[in-house]
Amino acid sequence: MSAPSSTSVAPEHSSLITRRRWVRGAVAGLLAAALVLGVGQLVAVFIDPASSPFFVLGATMVDHTPHTLKDAAIRRFGSNDKLALFISMSVVMALGAALAGIVERRRPLGSVLLVLLGGVTVFAALQRPTATVWFVLPTVAGIAAGIVALRLLIAGTPSLRTPEPADMTRRRFLVSAVSAGALAVVTVEAARWLGAHLRDVVADRARFLVPKPLRSAPAVPPDAQPQVAGLTSFITPDDRFYRVDTALQLPALTSGDWRLRIHGMTDRTVELDFDSLRRHTAVERILTLTCVSNEVGGELAGTARWLGYPLADLLADAGAHADADMLLSRSIDGFTAGTPLSAVLDGRDALLAIGMNGAPLPIAHGYPARLLVPGLYGYVSATKWVVDLEVTRFDRASAYWTDRGWAARAPIKTASRIDVPAAFATVPAGAVTVAGVAWAQQRGIAGVEVQVDDQPWQPATLASEYSIDTWRQWTWQWTAVPGTHTLRVRATDRTGQLQAEQRTPPFPSGSTGWHNRVVSVR
Ligand SMILES: Nc1nc2c(c(=O)[nH]1)N[C@H]1C(S)=C(S)[C@@H](COP(=O)(O)O)O[C@H]1N2
Ligand SMILES: [Mo]
Predict the structure, then answer these.
(1) Which of 7-21, 163-177, 278-292, 462-476 has the lowest mean pLDDT?
(2) Looking at residues 471-476, what average pLDDT do you find?
(3) Could you say which ligand is closest to the alpha carbon of residue 335?
(4) By alpha-carbon position, which residue is closest to atom 20 of ligand 1?
C-alpha cells in the first residue's frame, strides 16, 4: 500500500534535510540576487547606466561616505578605491542574499527583505543627479525577477512536512538553479554587450579629431628635464596620470551627444556643440594639475599638454554679469565644482579642454570635454565630462566637495617632493644625486632647498622653468657619508613665500609640510 501522506521523519533523515535546506536556501538567495542585478543592469541599459540597482547603491555610498573616510579610501586604494568599494559591496550583498534565501524557507521573509532593499534602492535611485522617474524601473524589474526566482527555487528545496523522494527534490532544485544561474549570466552579458554597442563612446573617441591649435604650446626646453633615473618626467604619460573622481562607472558621453550649456547670470544662454565649438580658436597649453587630497610627498599631480578653448572666450558669448563671482561647472554624472569667476577671466589659461597629450581626452580624464584652471585644485576647477556652466555667486551656490566640508576656494599650495633616492634606499657613500619636483601653479617656483639631518639648508639646482603653471624639476649633489640620514626639501614661490613647514592634512584645503626621505648610506 502507498505510504500515508504524513509521516514522522527519522531523526538522521531530518538533520540531513535541515542541512540541505540551509545550503539550498543560501544558493537560492545568491541566485535570486544575481538575477536582481542582471535584470536590473539589462533594464538600465535602456534608461541610463546610472539607474542600475548596483550602480545606484554604490554611487549613493560614495556620495554619503564622510569626507575623512573617503579621503582615507583615496589614500589607501588610490585609483583602486572603486574596485575596493565594489568588492566590499558584493561581499555584503552575497551574505545578505544567502541569508534571505535561508529565511525564505519558513516564511517569505527573504522576499520581504528583497522588497525592503528594493524600496531603499528606488529611493536612492530617485536622488541620483541625472534621475528621472524611469530610474525606478531597473530596480523594480530586478526585485520582481529576484522574488519569482526565490519562490521557485525554494519550492524545489526539501521539506520536512511533505517528504518527497530526495532525488526528486534534488533534480527539481538543480533544474531551477541552473536555469536561474543561466538567466542571470545571460542578462548580465546582454547588458554588457548592449551597453557597449548602444553608446559606443570608445569608437566615438577613436574617430574624434582633435583640432589643430592656432599656436602649439611652446616647446619644452631640454633642460626642463634633468636626466636623472627615477625623477618625475616633465610630461606625465596618460597611463601614469593620476585619476580622481566620484564616478563608479565612467560616463559614456559621445561627442555627438555632448552639449555645453552656459547660463545663469548671463546676458543670454548659450548652448555649444562640437560644431559650434570648432568655430572658436583652439589653443594648446602645458599645465600641471593637482589634487587637494595629495599628501606631502604624494603622487596626485601630473603635467600634460592640453588642447582646448579659452573659457573666457566662451563666456564672452554668454555675457557674464559683473556681480557674478562663481562659475559652477557640472558634469554629466552630477559632480559640480565652483570656480572663482575671476580665475577664469583674469587672463590665465583657463580652458575647456578636449585634447590631452596629442589625443582626445582619455575617457577617464573627461572625454569629450573637461575644464582646467591653472592654480586651483582639481575639485574646484577641473570638472571632467562637463556639460553645464552656470554663472552664479558663492553666496548662492555651492559645489560637490564644498557641500562635504572642503574649502570653497582652494588655490594650490606650494609643494615640493623628493623623488630620488627612493624611500629607504641604500646608496653608496660619495657623490649622490638628490632630485625631485616642486610646484606652485600661478606663482611659480623661485627656489628649492635641501637639508641633510640638521645641517644648514642648501640651495638645489633648478631645472629651467617652463611656466609658472607647471612643476619644476630640481637636483642637488650630495656628498654622502655612511650612516642613516634624513633628507628634507622645501620650496619658495616667486612671491618670496617659503613653503609652509607645519604638517597639516589635505582636509579641508590641501596638505602642507616639508617632505622628507630617510636614506641609508654605506
Ligand atoms: N566629473 C568629475 N570631474 C572631476 C572630479 C569628479 O569627481 N567628477 N574630480 C575632480 C578632482 S578632485 C580632481 S583632482 C581632478 C582629477 O582629474 P584627473 O582624474 O584627470 O587627474 O578632476 C576633477 N574633476
Ligand atoms: Mo582632487
Answers:
(1) 7-21
(2) 98
(3) 1
(4) 365
Query: Is 177 found in the same domain as 120?
Result: yes
Q: In what order do the strands lie in the sheet with 483-493?
A: 426-427, 515-521, 483-493, 445-452, 458-459
CA within 13 Å, CB half, 29: 27
Q: How confident is the model at residue 522 (pLDDT cuts 50, 70, 90)?
A: very high
Closest ligand 1 atom number to CA of residue 251: 1
d(CA 144, CA 323): 53
The answer on pLDDT for 351 being more than 90 is yes
Q: What whole-number distance in Å separates Cα of residue 263 and Cα of residue 388?
A: 8
Q: Report the residue among 384, 388, 401, 413 best suited for mutation to probe ligand 1: largest number of ligand atoms under 8 A from its CB.
A: 384
Please give the average per-residue pLDDT across 228-247, as a whole number.
Answer: 94
Asked if the peptide bond before residue 368 counts as cis, ω within 30 degrees of 0, the response is yes
Best residue for ligand 1 mutational test, from 74, 245, 249, 385 (most atoms within 8 Å of Cβ): 245
Q: Is 161 exposed, middle or buried (0-12, 13-18, 19+ CB in 10 A)?
A: exposed
Residue 242 CA to ligand 1 centre (angstroms): 10
- Mean pLDDT, the chain, whole residue set: 89
Same domain, 164 and 254: no
- 290 CA distance to ligand 2 middle (Å): 7
Q: What CATH number corresponds to the domain at position 339?
A: 3.90.420.10
Ligand nearest 511 Cα, by number?
Answer: 2
- 292 CA distance to ligand 2 middle (Å): 5
Q: Give the domain CATH number at 484.
A: 2.60.40.650
Give distance in angstroms: CA of 445 to centre of ligand 2.
22
Looking at ligand 1, which atom is closest to the CA of residue 292?
14
Which residues lie with the beta carbon below 6 Å from any ligand 1 atom? 241-247, 289, 291, 331, 333, 335, 365, 378-379, 382-385
pLDDT tens-digit readout, 304-338 = 999 999 999 999 999 999 999 999 999 998 999 99
pLDDT at 500 over 90: yes
Interatomic CA distance for residues 39 and 184, integer angstroms: 7
What's the rounded Cα separation, in Å, for the pair 2 and 20? 26
Choosing from 80, 81, 240, 244 the residue with most ligand 1 atoms within 8 A of its CB, the one to mutate for a pocket test is 244
pLDDT in tens, 428-446: 999 999 999 999 999 999 9
Protein residue closest via CA to atom 5 of ligand 1: 245
Q: 2 pLDDT band (50/70/90 cuts)?
A: very low
What's residue 86's pLDDT?
Answer: 78
Tell me which residue range forms the domain holding 391: 222-404
Strand partners of residue 450: 458, 489
Residue 393 shares a structural domain with residue 423: no
